[in-house]
Task: structure prediction
Amino acid sequence: MNGKDICKELKSLRRQIASDNGIPLDIPECDFKGECNGTCPRCDAELKSLERQLQLRNAIGKAAVIAGVAFSLASSQPVFACDTHDSNDIPREQCRKGKCTLSGTVVFSRDYEPVWGCTVLLKQNDEVVATAVTDSLGVYRFERIKKGDYEICFIYKTTDIKKLVSVEERQSVFHAIIEKQEPMLMGIIPVRVEDPEIEGRVR
Amino acid sequence: MEPVPFIGVVRHRIGVDGEGVTTLAAFHGCPLRCRYCLNSACFGPSEKLPRYTPESLFEKVRIDNLYFLATNGGVCFGGGEPLLYPDFIKSFRGLCGNAWKLTIESSLNVPPKSLDTVLDVVDDFIVDVKDLNPAIYKEYTGCGNDNVVANLQRLIEQKGPEHVIVRVPLIADYNTEEDRKATVDKLRGWGVVRINKFEYIVPSKK
Result:
């Protein structure tokens, strides 16, 4: 079996796994002409992306189906990757004396893609006790919080979801699924400058 | 655990080390000195060889996790002689869990305790017995084969013949077809059912 044959076999495996799990995966045909070992950085990047997608599905309770068997994939990514910071107005003692951790993943409902940059607020008695922002894997994490009842708010573009959570255990997990929103208009919009003084400077 | 030297880690072997997509992790070091050894790096100097702990090897090979799960593949430990590092292999199983298949390619020419350490954590064994005639074995490898015989019999008994592939080579200038047939007959008498007969490549003489 030469490198091209191996590459073809592995590509077929990736396609099958993606198809079995409803993951859209567009694998372009390889146009590399030289000798290869059967893999390349692009193939490896696809493989990592596929595994990450399956881990996200696991994170929200969906099993990964591989060769017809349901698997629970252990996460290979650190859970602490998110940006966690406190509001400057809240005394640190209020939220930092506990020994519990609350974390979770935020994904879009349509394709379970991670939501990067979702603001997550942890409130108690209507006051914000901690804030976080989800990372590129959609993960957020609050550390050293006290046991108790909280309101957790997920804010992303025009979406604002509030849920009540009870932190009882040392490690609590709460995931959120939000509707994917259409992208906002972006680009270069031509404008006419009416002020003659400015026109003079441009010339 | 201290890092140990490897002569190489090779990804994406298909159908070569048993079923499925496998990664071969070849240890440095071997008790034998086979005349036609293809991996002489395994008993040369090890200073420039890559070194891994069970943790760092796991991090290196885990990229192919989906292929392993999809094809009932996994990691094949070879070398060199992997049973020189039984604790490493046992630790590795602790890291990868039960979903990956672990295979060992070994001569079984190691103390029985080394085999015992890995019996419960390795799925399949591929054993190259060279020749079961002790004189031929000694002439070709430079070592006796008492451990090989004892370990192989215990392996068949403990793991079952379905988990053991025995490779029986025709070795130019050392054994004959008749010798090889005698080895096969002896193996069948011990309950070995998966036997792979093949011929060694003789390195060209300079």
Observations:
- Chain B has one domain: 4-199.
- The domain at 4-199 of chain B is CATH 3.20.20.70 (TIM Barrel).
- Chain B touches chain A at residues 11-12, 14-15, 21, 62-67, 69-72, 97, 99 (CB under 8 Å).
- Chain B has a mean pLDDT of 93.
